[in-house]
Amino acid sequence: MSPYDLGKASCVCRKWKYTIRNPVFWRNACLKAWQLSGVVENYKILQSRYEGSWRKMWLLRPRIRIDGLYVSRNTYIRAGVAEWKITNPVHIVCYYRYMRFFPSGRFIYKNSSQKIKDVAKIMNFRAAKADCVFTGHYTLSEEKVEAAVLYPGLRPTVLRIRLRLRGTTAGANNRMDLLSLVTSGMNDNEVNGHDEDILGVVEGWQDDETHNPDVPAVSHKRGLTPFVFVPFEEVETSVLNLPVEKMDYYVPG
């Protein structure tokens, strides 16, 4: 059972409530969540910051969740075609940014107008090229997340993302604020070795830096709505599936 399933069970069953006090459950969950840090480093952090309590570490240490998708829902008002039959010449356009993270330091990214219940089925490493699902690398330092993904093609473009991880309750880690979103060009030499670690290639780049004069660096100011975490078991029932006619704007909280 996942830590969140254990927590749900403890809310309705007294035996489970006492069972989850066993530190083994929390230790296993912590070592899996922060496996990039290594066992030795995790033990050092446990003793220095969380008084030797794996449960406290799980609840208080920033952690990217891997049991679902982070979704950013963005809406725009666009002008339509003014005709006889159209009483409202403007309409609302909605699109989403999707991110799925893995403990290995890799993540999957997709930008689409499709609802989360449809996108969740293809957010994996086996997705077809036509699905426009891209893979990248990320790092987590305290609550700051640095991520980068490469858009291949005739003019390869790297998307650099900076986020801040937070939670609506202790241990939730269910929100990510978009601090910056920058696209830049890459040269051929950089592109050839990107599979190893695209994030390492762009480390130290400035926001206005590009390595391809045909692809200028652009710092995007739109589409920066905070990401909301949706567990896999809730993708079918999430309110983020609602069309703009029923939910014109979503407040992440």
UniProtKB/TrEMBL annotation:
Pathway given in the UniProt record: Protein modification; protein ubiquitination
F-box domain boundaries: 2-31
Annotated function: Acts as a component of a SCF E3 ubiquitin ligase complexes.
Lineage top rank: taxon: Eukaryota
GO cellular component: nucleus; SCF ubiquitin ligase complex
Designated name of the protein: F-box protein
Cited PANTHER family: F-BOX ONLY PROTEIN 48, F-BOX ONLY PROTEIN 48-RELATED
F-box protein Hrt3/FBXO9 C-terminal domain sequence ranges: 43-253
Compartment annotation: Nucleus
Assembly description: Component of the SCF-type E3 ligase complex.
InterPro entries reported in the protein's UniProt record: F-box-like_dom_sf, F-box_dom, Hrt3/FBXO9_C
A Pfam family that the UniProt record links to this protein: FBO_C
KW Secreted (keyword) present: no
UniProt GO BP: protein ubiquitination; SCF-dependent proteasomal ubiquitin-dependent protein catabolic process
Main location: nucleus
Alphabetically ordered keywords of this record: Nucleus, Ubl conjugation pathway
